[in-house]
Structures are given as C-alpha cells and as structure tokens.
C-alpha cells in the first residue's frame, strides 16, 4: 500500500508585512496546516505585527522556521510547487489548486508550496526550483490575489481530501422508528376526527392517506416526533380560556 503523503509545507518567500504572515497562518490553521517556513522576511522574524493578524493561530507562528534561501527551505521536500499568475520564462506543468491537492494527497513524501512577496510574487529563479506551477483560474483583467487569499485557496483544496469537521452542521439524529411515526399519525387522527376533518366519508380514506404521506416526508427523528406529540397534546387539552367563567 502506498504511504500517505505528509501535510504540505507552506513557504512564504521574502514576505513583506508581518500582518500578511499572520493572516497566512490563520488561513493555514483553518484547514489543518501548521508548518510555515519563511525565506528572508523583509522585516525580520519574529514580527510583532503577525500575532494579532493570526487571530489565534499562534502555534503556526511559534513553530515557523526562517531560511536564507528557497533551496534551503525546501531541501527536505521531494515535491515543490510554485504559485504564480505570471509567466516567468520557465516551462513547467501548470496545475490548478485542486489538481495540485490531488497530487499532494496521493504522492508520498514531503510537499512544499511556495508563495512569493506581496508586491511582485515569485521570481523566475524561485519558480525554477519547483516541479510544477499552481495557478488559480482568475479574471484575466484583474489577477491580483493577496498572500492570505492565495494560501487559503491551496489549503482549502488540500483539506477537501482530509476528514476535517464541518462546524456549521450538527450531527443528525437517525430517523424515528416506524412505530413512533405511526403513533404521531394516530395522534393527529384522534384530534382531527371529532372536528369533522375526515368528512365526507367518501373521501375519508383519501384524506387519511394524504395526511400520512405529508407526515412521512420530513423523515422525523425521535426528538422531532416527541416534540410534535407534545404540541398535539397541548392543543388537544380542554383548557379554560383566560377571563372566561367556569
């Protein structure tokens, strides 16, 4: 069996602003990446502006390593990808973030993704080190992603191959047993019959069937059935209206 590839390393080449390094760290950790490498950051490292911009992704900043060259930063990586939207005079396979993520998750070994300086992007010599280029399909009239945006696109595509939690979706309860659903339908029937809901008699079977179909569609779970039974019980009580005479 082929060994599972490691998580990709994010390499920021000559980043200019501490805030952008922090935002990139935040983007990484959102999608399960924590290994950041910096190549000669302009304002040195550590940078006090990075922490607040990371919004809690401190573990990425604390473990960030600094290197003097791109070659040193990726020396232990078997696969290197360079992100750029500009032609750099080098002939390389050009991949979308999705295609690169597929390779990262299937090819064994260490993978590194290079991101260039905010103002100018990667230089030709930086791109030459990589085996492939990652380019985002983008508006040709305005191909301007900021550093964190570029990182988040690549990190997100990689995360789609992992088992990350979806924080906005709660675990669904299983559907209620048929006996509970039948009890709910019977409860509706007992309350509706005295009020003439199933009249005329000639249409009673059809009306009951339609009611069952309607109540079956939502695939109620146990909690929902119990809640609806409680609603029906409350509606079915003979309660004295406020202010009325007994």
Please characterize this protein's 3D structure.
The protein has 246 residues and is of the alpha/beta class. It has two domains: 9-159, SPOUT methyltransferase, trefoil knot domain (Alpha/beta knot, 3-Layer(aba) Sandwich), CATH 3.40.1280; 178-236, no CATH class. It has ten helices and seven strands. The protein has a seven-stranded parallel beta sheet with strand order 3-2-1-6-4-7-5. Helix 5 crosses helix 7 (147-159) and helix 8 (178-192) runs parallel beside helix 10. The radius of gyration is 30 Å and the shape is elongated.
Query: Any guess at the CATH architecture of the largest domain?
Result: 3-Layer(aba) Sandwich
Looking at CATH, the homologous superfamily of the largest domain is: SPOUT methyltransferase, trefoil knot domain
Helix content: 40-55%
| Count of alpha and pi helical runs | 10
Pfam family, one: SpoU_methylase
InterPro entries: Alpha/beta_knot_MTases, RNA_MeTrfase_TrmJ/LasT, SpoU_MeTrfase, tRNA_m1G_MTases_N
Family: Belongs to the class IV-like SAM-binding methyltransferase superfamily. RNA methyltransferase TrmH family.
GO cellular component, one term: cytosol
Short account of what is shown:
InterPro entries: Alpha/beta_knot_MTases (IPR029028), RNA_MeTrfase_TrmJ/LasT (IPR004384), SpoU_MeTrfase (IPR001537), tRNA_m1G_MTases_N (IPR029026). With 246 residues, the protein is an alpha/beta fold.
């Amino acid at each position: 069996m082929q060994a599972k590839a490691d998580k990709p390393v994010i390499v920021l080449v000559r980043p200019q602003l501490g805030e952008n390094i922090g935002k990139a760290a935040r983007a990484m950790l959102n999608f399960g990446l924590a290994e950041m490498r910096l190549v000669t950051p302009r304002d040195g490292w550590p940078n006090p502006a990075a922490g607040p911009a990371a919004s809690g992704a401190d573990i990425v900043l604390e473990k960030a390593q600094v290197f003097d060259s791109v070659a040193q930063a990726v020396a232990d990586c078997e696969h290197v990808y360079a992100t750029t939207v500009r032609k750099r005079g080098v002939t390389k396979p050009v991949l979308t973030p999705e295609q690169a993520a597929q390779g990262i998750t299937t090819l064994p070994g260490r993978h590194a993704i290079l991101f260039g300086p905010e103002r100018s992007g990667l230089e030709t010599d930086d791109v030459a080190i990589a085996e492939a280029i990652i380019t985002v399909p983008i508006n040709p009239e305005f191909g301007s992603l900021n550093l964190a945006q570029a990182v988040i696109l690549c990190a997100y595509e990689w995360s789609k191959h992992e088992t990350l939690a979806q924080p906005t979706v709660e675990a669904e309860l299983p559907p209620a047993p048929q006996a509970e659903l039948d009890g709910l339908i019977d409860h509706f029937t007992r309350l509706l019959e005295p009020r003439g809901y199933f009249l005329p008699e000639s249409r009673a079977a059809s009306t009951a069937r339609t009611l069952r179909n309607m109540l079956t569609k939502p695939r109620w779970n146990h909690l929902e059935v119990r809640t609806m039974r409680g609603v029906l019980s409350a509606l079915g009580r003979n309660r004295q209206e406020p202010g009325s005479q007994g």
